[in-house]
Amino acid sequence: EILTDLRRDTPMSRLLQGDVGSGKTVVAAGALFAVVGDGWQAAMLAPTEVLAEQHAQTLREMLQPLGVRVELITGGVSASGKRKIWRDVEQGEVDVVVGTHAIIQRGSRFKCLNLAIVDEQHRFGVRQRGDMRAKGYNPHLLAMTATPIPRTLALTLYGDLDISTLRELPAGRRPVKTSFVPSGRREDAYNFVRREINAGR
Questions:
Q1: Beta-strand (E) ranges in the chain?
Q2: Which of 64, 55, 49 is nearest to 26 (CA)?
Q3: pLDDT tens digits, residue range 25-59?
Q4: How far is Cα 197 from Cα 201, in angstroms, rounded to an integer?
Q5: CA distance 93 to 196
Q6: Whole-angstrom Cα distance, residue 169 to residue 22?
Q7: Which residue, 31, 36, 92, 157, could crosslink 111 as a Cys pair with Cβ 3.0–4.6 Å?
Q8: Model confidence pTM above 0.90
């Protein structure tokens, strides 16, 4: 559905919804690669630095071996680092920019932005999504969410968006285990978290 939209003359406006771990980032990577392969640039907007860093790392692992340059822009990047990245973006040397609100600041400019992806789109306002889109000449928009919204409600809230849904989880994905720890065992929970962090998890 997304690749079909990207081939059309009119800009895509699509909402991709799926559970956590269903593969939305992989689908996004496919869309990014398709756009970059045609000589355009793309951007992915995430609501937090942690999520932006995770996306940048994942996209680099998938796309850099294919010759795609991915750069991360967040509030944590130094001013000089941002200036250098934006210079490269404006000159068309960066293919994909991943970041937080920092990528929709007034001073940020793309050479030829053709696809804007907004992750956890419900965390952004209409104006912020519009600011992202304004960085290119009416680029394609792919919004992503893991928040379960019934289709009828989604059509009401996002009437301007076509909807794609990932209904299955990738093969081999381990089930998520959720545990409730009573307040009397709080120290046990902290010790468990410390052991996991010390093990590099």
A1: 13-18, 41-45, 70-73, 96-99, 113-119, 140-145, 162-166
A2: 55
A3: 999 999 999 999 999 999 999 989 999 999 999 99
A4: 5
A5: 39
A6: 5
A7: 92
A8: no
